[in-house]
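A quick aside before the break. I want you to see a complete sequence-to-structure record at least once, exactly as it would be stored in a machine-readable document. Don't worry about memorizing anything.
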Amino acid sequence: MVALKHKLELSFGLDSGSSMEGSPWSERVSGVFAYESSKVDWCEENYRHSEHVVEYFNTVSNLIFFIISPLMLYLLHPYARERHLAVHLVWLMMLFVGLFSLYFHMTLSFLGQMLDELSILWVLALGYALWFPRRRFPSFIKDRRSFGRLVLVITALTTVSSFVKPTANAYVLNVFGLQLLYVLGMEMKHCTDPKALRLARRMGALWGLAIACWISDRFGCAFWQELNFCYLHGIWHILIVMTVAYGTTLIAFLDASYEIPYSLPGIQYWPCDQWEVGLPHIVLKGNTKLRKEC
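That is the input. The structure line, written in tokens, reads:
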């Protein structure tokens, strides 16, 4: 660990011979990058499998992001091409969520924690800006562009303030996440498509399991340590990626039904649609050449 700390100091010009040694600024910078500088420490035993990786399985489990995200980018492309290519930003940002989460669990650094949390915030903000139903906009918002700008300004301000007061990010995360779930539930009350209803139930089950794993790992660590099974946060990573895959497909289906109904959107599963097993995605069965003149 001493050698690693020395490498980090050298890479940022903070070696022991530097004139900045002992200055408040240098101490803050080195502290941000330092291993285990975050106050968050998950249940998995630290450095058990590698002297360079703090939480090995919590780190490795993030590889699921790099498998699912490219597949969802490919599967949702027909819908994104017809609706708006900005839809791809959601799953592109999910790649960064996986990258920053991997870095965080590898180091448990404060910087890793902030990057992990802020990347999740931006995924939620993008989904909020792209898919929040127009009929539910505040009265002073007239179009989606204005709504998107408002969401992005709030997100940018939260990002900056998070480095001053990190808890600010948690509040905005909860506001975005809970309201998206609430609106999705309200929209599903008007949905009659049986495949979409089944998808919603499966998404809810996955989300419930994911939250249970997160809470159990965070607050029930002593119990799981007794069972020698401290990997629930790694399972959370896998479950939450699948939840996002199901959730974005469901939201995209509802959005396409309202915004581009001429495309006759439907839901299919890759690789096996017959059994509805795998990754859900949108198929456009209508004549998309009509576009929005209809």
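Two observations worth writing down. The longest helix spans residues 232-259. The mean pLDDT is 86. We'll return to this after the break.
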